[in-house]
Specification:
The protein is an alpha+beta fold and about 160 residues long. Helices cover about 20% and strands about 40% of the residues.
C-alpha cells in the first residue's frame, strides 16, 4: 500500500522560505522516508511500469474536489452497493491512471489523465482501501473512484 502512496505525486509547498515536500503519511519528509527513498518508484511511474492489482469498487459523484472525509464517505457508499467489485490492474504513469479489467477481459475501464486528478487518499477505516477524486470529461462533475488493493504492499 505504501508503494501506491509513494508513486502518486505529492505536491511541494513552501514554509517560511524553505521548500518542504510531503511524505506518504502527509507530514514533512524525514531522513528515512524523504524524497530520496522514492527514486525507484518515481522512475517506475515515469517509465509507465507501475502497476497494482486492485478491486475496483466503482465511482460516485462527489461535490467537493478534495478531502479525506469526501473520499472516505464515497468509499463507504461504494462498499454499501450490492455491485461486485471488479478485479483489475491499475497502471500509474506520469500521464495518467488506467484501469484494465483482468477478470472478464472487458478491456479498459478507466483512462484518466493526471491533470484532472485533484486528490488521492487512503481509507483510514480499511488498510487496503484508497480513492481519488477527478473531474469527469464532458459533464465536468467531480467523481470519486474507489479501490481496494489485493496485496498489502501494493506489489503485484
Amino acid at each position: 500500500m505504501d508503494r501506491i502512496r509513494k508513486s502518486l505525486r505529492i505536491p511541494s509547498r513552501h514554509r517560511g522560505g524553505e521548500l518542504v515536500r510531503g511524505d506518504a503519511s502527509g507530514g514533512a519528509a524525514s531522513g528515512t522516508g524523504g524524497p530520496d527513498a522514492w527514486h525507484p518508484d518515481e522512475g517506475a511511474v515515469r517509465a509507465g511500469l507501475c502497476t497494482f492489482q486492485v478491486k475496483y469498487l466503482g465511482s460516485v459523484e462527489v461535490f467537493e474536489s478534495r478531502g479525506m472525509q469526501v473520499c472516505e464517505g464515497a468509499l463507504k457508499m461504494l462498499r454499501a452497493q450490492t455491485k461486485t467489485p471488479i478485479k483489475a490492474v491499475l497502471h500509474v504513469s506520469g500521464d495518467g491512471l488506467r484501469l484494465v479489467d483482468q477478470q472478464n477481459h472487458r478491456g479498459l475501464i478507466v483512462d484518466q489523465t493526471i491533470e484532472k486528478v485533484s486528490f488521492c487518499a487512503p481509507d483510514r477505516n480499511n488498510g487496503r482501501g484508497f480513492a481519488y477524486i477527478c473531474r469527469e470529461g464532458s459533464s465536468r462533475r467531480w467523481m470519486c473512484h474507489g479501490f481496494t488493493a489485493m496485496h498489502e504492499s501494493g506489489e503485484s
